[in-house]
Every structure is written in structure tokens, then in C-alpha cells.
Amino acid sequence: MRKLGKNSLLAFGDKYRIYILFALVFAFMSLFAPRFFNVFNITSILKVISMNACVAIGFTVVMICGQLDLSIGTVITFAGVLALGLKPALGYAGSIAVAVVAGGLVGVLNGLLVAKAKINSFIVTLGTMTVLQGAIYQFSGGNSISVSTPDAFVISDFLGKSLLPLLTPRILISLVLVLAMEAYLRRTRSGRNFYLVGGNRNTAWLAGIPTDKYTVAAFVLSGVGAAIGGVLSVLESTAATLKLGENSLMYVISATIIGGTAMSGGKGGVLRSVVAIFTLEMLYTGVILFGLGNEVKIFIAGLILAYVVLYEAYATYKHENDLGRRPELMKELEARRMAKEKA
Amino acid sequence: MEEREIGLALEMKRVSKRFPGTIAVDDVSFEVYAGEVHALVGENGAGKSTLMKMLAGSFDDYTGQICINGKEVKLHSPTQAKKYGIGMIYQELSLARPISIIENLLAGRLPRKGPLLDKARARSQAKGLLAHVGLDLDPELPIEDISQHEAQLVEIAKVLGNGPCILVMDEPTSALSREEVERLFQIIVQLKNRGIAVVYISHHLPEIFRIADRVTVMRDGKKIATKPIGEVTREEIVQMMVGRSVKEFYKRDERKIGETRLKVSGLSRFGFFHDVSFEARRGETLGICGLSGAGRSELAKVLAGLDRADEGRIELDGAEVRSGTMADALSRGIAYLTEDRKHEGLALRLTVGENIMAPIVDRLSSGSVFSKAKGAPLAAELIGELDIYPPDPERTVGNLSGGNQQKVLLAKWLASKPKVLILDEPTRGVDIGAKMTIHSSIEKLAREGCTVLLISSDLPELVGLSDRVMIMRKGHFTREMGFGECSEESLLLAANGALGAEGGA
Amino acid sequence: MADDRSLGSSSVGRLVSAAGVYGIAALFLAVGALLQATGIIRGFLTIQNMLNIVDAAALVGIVAVGMAFVTYSGHFADMSVPTTMGFTGYVCIELLRYGFIPAVIVALAIGLLIGLMNGFVVGKLKANPIIWTLAVNYVTMGVIRLIWVNKQIYPDMRGSGQKAVELFDNIYRLRFFNLIGLPVVMLLVLVVAGQFVMTKTSFGVKLKLTGSSLRAAKFSGISVERVITTAFVLTALTATIAGLAVTSLSRVGAWYNGAGYDFKAVTAIVIGGMTLAGGRGSILGVLGGSLIIGLLNNVLTLLGVGTFSQDMIRGAIFIVVVGINAKSLRSLGRDDA
Questions:
Q1: What is the pLDDT of residues B438-456, one digit of tens each?
Q2: Domain-wise residue ranges, chain A
Q3: B493 touches chain C (CB under 8 A)
Q4: CATH class given for the domain over A8-293
Q5: C316 belongs to a structural domain
Q6: Does residue C12 lie within any of the structural domains?
Q7: φ, ψ of residue B451 in degrees (nearest 5)
Q8: In this predicted complex, what is the ipTM?
Q9: CATH number of B258-495
């Protein structure tokens, strides 16, 4: 029986690339970066990534469906601003619900425009991104929103306190969401259907899968995930700045691709994206720990995204180039080379 | 399913399907018995595929009646069609490339245990389905990691896995090797014995005589006849398909073949074709015959500068061509007509005139100012010569019929006045009239001294037009046949590797 | 077999859609006038206000005319425009001490390099244009922050390049006949040149083929990589011109100088009748689109609508126009096959 590729070590390396990368970066930072390997620092890294981890949950599903959601950054901020801004009027229960539902509605809008109006997803979400940007400023009047009522601090303290080493309630919530989504995508029929829709719409359609519904669902997950990420973040910090989600787009796109989710769809996983986020955050923390400034961090983040996009493009280019090569001809070539070496 | 059912499995009564500007299926009645293999033949564009797509639930606006097992049904979506037990094996694969074989085979019906997937059962089901078509692959592999003919078999396994009572196969053997074709025929016989109705669409008439019980011939959207296979001859079928006798189809003129124009030696693109050498002369039409996937189009693309050769040498009129780009090859007079008209051949949203002038934009420009007026007479002349209908250079190409689109594609390359013209399936999917026009245009081109490399799966076309035919098999040139020894049968056998030395390998 | 759908939609339709943009612009003008007549807004129909509209439209228009080439080539938009504008502005101010001409030339050279890079990556390696140019936008932002550490810089009025600084400060404030500003003149020149290049040159024909069907263009022997690269270079160069204008008019080099121009430009382009599918539309339409953006902003501002709400409205208009375009292309059966 033919199994994975001829060079199974290479194939293994490719399949688990992100986990290997994670281990390498972790080992490197632990060994060389000052003040890296301790509970406090790693907890703070986990806290930082818990927002983008929530965002990556839905974003990855959108990419598995073969689409892109550029509006996530603004959804984060929008949800954060709503959750705190509406608190005085609605109380936390109300404001959080509104914020998460708003994220979902943005997803519905994106999804319908992509699935029904058949517009390119990055064009659609570019539009909604602009609309939301305006809405954020309109709602907040251009200022950060913070709450300083006693209940706000209670919630903030609760979300941030250490349950176990490395584990605060907020980290735990994010972790549970990520693992639940991972299990759903891997182990349920409807979870697998997202892959089929992204892998080949026509196949999915012929198999009787409602492709449009799955596309909309993916964008809704993305909107809700981003909103939850934003809400949890502002609840812990008790303040919503208008730059909350500013760098998330760049961050999450990079991480998702590094994690092995293809921009063309049909491949990838949520856990992989989150591990990639962890890896990137270790790198960025390392940059700071090595004494380099925030500017360097932003610069490096940009470079990483550029590199990742290039790599993805190159890999596709190469794959297409190799598509249809006959294995027996390649063997023949190998044989010829061997014969030449002998002579 | 165990007992053999007798009776009509499928009855299509006076069905029609229109597309804007054309009637693809015109008042056709078509019946298939349970346990019958029913061949459906016709020229490309005769309406076979549309008729079958109707059955697969691809259209919600056909007219007429469809009955399955005696009951009238409405087939307006693929899900409905599947529910009534209709299985379709399409010509182009409908598999999701990044997804594993398992999930493709069991798309939409992965086995579950409670709310979760039952992976072990999925795996064993998939292995069972693969074994049925004689494949021994790890079902976890994604489709993109298996070869095209393996994928074709996976596709067949997938459809069989749905347990269809009516199975439609549209050119299922085009990507298969001889052994695999044999295997497929065994499967078809098994299905037949189980009482399944099989509709078999193919251009390979010998296959039809081997496997079919009855044959229906279609032409121009209409049904011409349905006959038991024992009551017709090949010639009669062909005659019904083309509507005239085949003999008069190819009339050869005297050819004047000049000195060597193109010389290719030891040319390889690793993994696609190896060590290809040949010469083609002025005014000569050199046929290249082979199954799809034999490396024919890949060779053409290297000659045209679209891909780079890994080794070897190309000479044009004695001077080496080291072109890395198509623009370069084109300026030296090597042109390539692609087999993929819709995506690579024509910009469907642009006009006939714009498409014809596409390869000669620079030639029609002085400095960098483009002059449409300069190209207009040429375009008009070509539209007239190839009888493109409607004869209007301002017409959007996408709105023309397939045959006229193909003529525009040829016109585009005639406009570039090539020394060597490589034609890749120049008449695929066109009606008989367009085919004749294109053939006479190719002959005229050769008479005028152009070297034509003709890649075609249409064997009569190869036999009729070529002075010599090179056989390509699995990336190698295996054999050459002169005009005298060429026949459809000999070419087919050679392409399948059953005739002559394997050579080279 | 063929039918007559193409006639109505291709020639007449094209004319209508190009004229339509100006019709909409006229409509906006009429609405503005009506609002003024009914006393809802004030100061719309004044020469000064009209000049404001045209000035605002000019900067967006300059960027849009260049970016239209990218859109026309079927590559949607260039999202690296904002930081290209910002970065070249910084560089120019820094280099004014070596004289006006060298500073402008270096700024243009940087724009050229960014365009070449984008063109290579998108054209040759086939990266997704939006994501790639977004990444470039981030990287350039990083470069700006690395070099100037979040600081805005002002032209040095006393240093060695005093003359150059004065020239740079004043040149974009130049008004012909005391009315028409230099950016407007530049826009008009670019529109005429752009329209000529797009419709009359061999590059324009190849660009149309590339935008209509990239693979068919490639298989016609057109070096699509070169065509796409040229489109991105043109975008980067007009972005540089606009960047210098914004920098000169605000007398400050700042990283936010180009903020929002990417989206404004692409909105102007789609309103102007150019479809994101590529190969359709005209530079004249893009000019109309830019005017509409200017008019819209002006009327909304006079109505007392804040900038942020204007962003929202512009985003909504963008989505609606793109949606209508996609729908009408599909109903003609000419969605990308």
C-alpha cells in the first residue's frame, strides 16, 4: 500500500511543522532570552495571546472555507467598545450580549455578501472593516472607554487571578473555546463539511451540503470569536482603547498561515493557528526582552506576515509546477543519475 | 438489489433543455432497462452531456417528463437526483483536492457514533470502496497526492459507494490505462448483473461494442436512433453521428514538403516527458498521438516557451531557440493553440476582434501606440475565411457557440502568421461544421508552408490530416508511423502501448 | 446560436455607465443646491466651497487614477498606498536640505521600488494582491517607526535647504488664476495621460487582456508579469505624488499622512464604474468617482455629519456598488468563467 510521500521524515516534518517550530522557539527563548523562562512571564504571554486565540478560532474556519475575513480587527475593537460603553445603560449581561451579537451580525452580513452576492470575501470585509472603523469612532467619540465601578474591578480581578500556575479564568475560557472548536472541526460531520466546502465547493454541493450556509456560518463564527476575544480582553483591563484590535489582523493572518491553514482552503486547524500565535508572541516578547523597542516588534511582525504570504505564494507556485509529474519518469531520472555516478 | 429487476429503470419522455440562444436537448425520449448497459454516443456538443446533467439534477428548468422505476420524478437538485439513486461519474473530476480520500469517498455521509465521527468505520468503509475498484492506497492521503488516473478510480468508487440504481459514466476511461479499463469493465458487468442500469458515454466505439447492450445516437440536440448493439456496425454509428459518410470527410491534396524547419533533440522536462527528439519540415503536418497525460501538452508548452525545458535543444531553421517566454517564441514564429479554450485560449469577456489581435498587439503598434484600425482588415479577413458567425468583430466571444469560439481561437493564431503552429486538440467540443472549417484551414496553412504539430485525441482527425504521426506514451516518443500505416486502430493500440517497441525507457 | 445580449450591454451600456458617473455627480450637486435652497445647509454653492470640493477630490483622484491600473489588471487594489504616501513624505522632507529636485527624485525612486516589489510578488509569484500589499503597508509602517520613532517631522525652515523648503511648501499651494490648485492640474494631466495609456497604447491593450483573463493573456504571448508590474509601479508613483502633496499642504511628515487614501481611492474607482473583476471601466469614470467622493464628503460635512459617520457611509456605498456590479455581471452570464 502506498503511504505518505517517499520521504516520510520530510512529510512528518511538514505535517507537524508548527509544533516543531513552537518547540524550537520555546527552547531558544528559554535558553537565551533573559527573564523568559518563568511562570510570571509565560502567564503574561498566555494572557496576551488569549484574545487573538479567540479571534483565530473563527478566522481559521473562514480560511478553511477558502475565504478571508479582514474585518476581525475592527470587530474586536467594536465589541470591546460596546461591552464597556453600554455597560452603564444595560449592565454587563446586556452589554456583553449586545457586543457578541453585534460580532455575529457582522459575520452574517459578511457571509451573506460572500455567499449570496458572490463578492470576493476580502473585498466585502474590506468594506465592512471601513464601516466598522467609522462606527467605532462614532460610538466612542474617538476616545477610549473605561469603567471604574466596583463590579468592573471584581470581574477584572476574577478574570486575571491565578487558578493554577499559568492558568487564569480568562486563559481557561479561551483554551476551552479553542479545544471545543478543534474537537468540533475534527470529530463531527458538520465540522468536516467546512473542509469539504473549502476544498471544492462543487464536490460539497454535489454531496448535498448547503455550501452557502456553511460559508455564512464560518463568517458568523469569525465575528463571534473576534467579539468574544475583544470582550474578554476589555473586561480584564476595564478599558477599551480604540487600538485594541489594531494589530490582530496582521497577527492572526500570519499565525493561521504559519499554522498550516492554506489560503486556498480545505486544510488546517484551529489548534495549529493558536500554537502559531503562541510561537509568534514568544518571538515578539523575546524582541522586547532582548531590549529592542516596540518599533522593532511591529517591523518584525510586518516582515513575518510578508514572508508568510511570500512563502504561501511560492509553495502554491511550486506545487502547481510539480502537478502532474509522472512518478515513474522521476524514478527513471533517478536511475539515470545513479548510473552516471557509477560511471 | 439482489434479485434481478426487469423493466424500465429510467424513462425520459420528450425532454428539452434550452440555453440562451440554443436548444441543447431538443425533444428527446430516452429509455434504459434495469440491468442494461446503454451506450450514448454523439459528436461533441450533440447534447449527451446536457441530457445526463438533467438527470443529475443540475437544471431546474428542463421540460418534459422523467420517470424512475415507473414513477414520475422531478430532478431539480443533485440531492434529489441522488435520493432517487442516480449516480454520475463526471468527465472532469469532482473531488476536493486538499481533502483525504476517505472524506471524498464519504462526502456528506461520514459514519457517526453518537454525535462524533466513527473514524475506524470510515476508514474500513473507504478501504472497501477502494478495493472494489482495485485500488490499494492509504485512504488518509489527500487527493492532491495521488495521480490523475488513481483519482479517476476514486471518483468511480465514490459514486458506486452511494449505491446507485442508475449509473451514468461520462468518458470514464479517458484517463485510465488498459489494465484499469479492463478492471472497470469487470465492475460494469458486476453492476449489470445486480440489475443496475448503466448509461455509458464514450467516443471509443470499440469500447461500446464490447460493453453495451444498446446504443443511442444523438446529433445536434436530437435523438437519431436507439438500436441493439448487434444490429449496427461501427460505420453506421459513425454515419448517424456525423450525418454523412466518413469517407468524404478527409480529402487529401498533394502536399509539398520542404526542408527541415523544426529540429528537437533530447528535449526533457523532468517528470513530464523525457528525451524527445524529432524533426518537422516545412509544409508538413506532424501528428502527435497519445493518451491524455502522456506528456503531449507539456511538450507543446515547452516548445511554445510557456515552460522551460530541463535539457535538450530546439532548433528553428537551423538556429537554436533558447526562449524562456512565449513572447519570445512567438516573435520567432512558434505559436501554440491551447486545449483549454475557456480559460487559456480566449478572454471570453472581450470581443472577437480583441481576441484575434491579442498575440499581435506589438505588431499592430507603432512606438507604443496601438492601432486597432491596422488590425481590423486582418480580423475581418480571418472572420470571413473561417466563417465565424456572427461575422462581427465587436461581438463578445463568450456569447458565441463553442464551434465559433474555437474558430476565433484558431483565427488568433493564424493572425500571428506562424512558421510553426502547435495545435492542441483543435476541434475538441465543436460541431461538425466548425470541425470541417478548421480542418480545411489547417490544410491550407500546411499548403502555404507552415509546419503544423497536431496533438489530438480524435483519431480520424489525426489519420486524416497528418503526414506522419509520432506516438507518445508515458512521457516518451515510442514510435513513428507514416501516412500509409496509420489507421485509427493502429494508433489506438500504439497509444495504449500494445503495439511496437516501448523504445527509450 | 449566438444571441444579441452583447450589443446592448457592451457598447451602449458602456457609454451609459461612463456618463452615469457624471449624472450621479450632477445629482449630488443638485441635491446640495436643493438643500441650500431649502435652507438646510449653507455655503454649498460658493466658489470657495466648489474649490474645496475639487481640491479634496484632486488628492483622492491622483491616487485613484494610478490605482485604477491595478484594478483594471484584475488585482483589486493596492493597500500599501497609505504608508507609501507617508514614507515618501518623510523622505522628501528629510532630504530637502540637499535641494528640492533631489528630494523629490529620491521620493519618487522609493515609490518606484515599492511598486516594482509589489508587481514582482503579485505578478510573478501570484501572491494575493490585497494581503501582500497589506503586509507591505505594515512593513513600511515599521520602517517609518524604526527610523523616525513615532515622531512627526517638520521641514527645517532655517537650515541649508531653506530655498528648497520654501519651494516645497509653496508649490502645492500654487493656484493658477488664483483658482485652480496644482493638485487639480496634476489630476487633470494624469487623467488625460491615464485615459490615453489605457485606451490607445499597446500596454493598455495588454492590460485589458490581462485584466479580462490573465491566463488567456499569458497564453497569447503577453508577458503578464511585466504588465502587472507596470500597473503597480504606476500606482506607487501616483501615491508618491499624492503623498508629497499631502505632506506639502500639511507642512508635516507624518505616518498618518496617507491614512484612508487606499479605501477612498478604491471606492472612487468602483463608483467610477470600474469592476473589481478587471478589464472594465475607464479613467474618465474614475475621475467622476473621485468627484462624487469629494461632493459626498462636502455635503455630509455641511449637513453636520461627522468624519466617522462619513467613513461608514462611504464603506456602505462601496459594498453596495460592488454588490450591484457583481450582480449585473453575473446576470449577463459573464461572471469570470
A1: 999 999 999 999 999 999 8
A2: 8-293
A3: no
A4: mainly alpha
A5: yes
A6: no
A7: -90, 125
A8: 0.88
A9: 3.40.50.300
